[in-house]
């Protein structure tokens, strides 16, 4: 009798996925979301590496520019009080104009 009841119960219960039927309609969300996550992660890493190398290249270019060095030195001398405002303005305009 117990075997008969178990057999009837198993025949009536369709199983966790409707007895092997179609998968739920939302199943594409997971692989698409997983792929978008990895694309976003790789894009972020690429962006950060690119930004760091560009900043480094810009800093090297600025450090090798003699005009930038001269303006920086002039600003330091003015900040230390070695030259007054009139001399600072005159020399900075001379640097900008190149005369």
- Whole-angstrom Rg: 36 Å
Q: Largest sheet at a glance? A: none
Report the uncertain regions: none
Please write the string of helix (H) and strand (E) elements. Answer: HHHH
First-last Cα distance: 111 Å
Shape: rod-shaped
The averaged pLDDT comes out at 82
Strand content: under 5%
Helix/strand/pairing class, anyone? Answer: mainly alpha
Number of helices: 4
Number of strand elements: 0
The residue fraction in helices comes out at over 70%
Describe the structure.
This protein has 99 residues and is mostly helical. 76% of the residues lie in helices and 0% in strands. The protein has helices at residues 2-12, 29-64, 66-80, 85-97. α3 runs antiparallel to α4 (85-97). It starts with a helix and ends with a helix. The relative contact order is 0.05. The mean pLDDT is 82.
Features:
mainly alpha; 4 helices
Task: Summarize the SSE layout with pairings.
Layout: H1 2-12, H2 29-64, H3 66-80, H4 85-97
Helix pairs in contact: 3-4
């Amino acid at each position: 009798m117990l075997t008969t009841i178990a057999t009837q119960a198993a025949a009536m219960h369709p199983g966790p996925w409707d007895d092997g039927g179609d998968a739920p309609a939302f199943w594409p969300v997971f692989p698409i979301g997983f792929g978008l996550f990895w694309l976003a992660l790789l894009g972020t890493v690429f962006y950060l590496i690119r930004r760091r190398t560009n900043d480094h290249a810009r800093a090297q270019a600025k450090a090798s520019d003699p005009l930038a060095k001269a303006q920086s030195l002039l600003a330091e001398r003015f900040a230390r009080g070695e030259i007054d405002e009139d001399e600072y303005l005159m020399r900075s305009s001379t640097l900008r104009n190149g005369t």
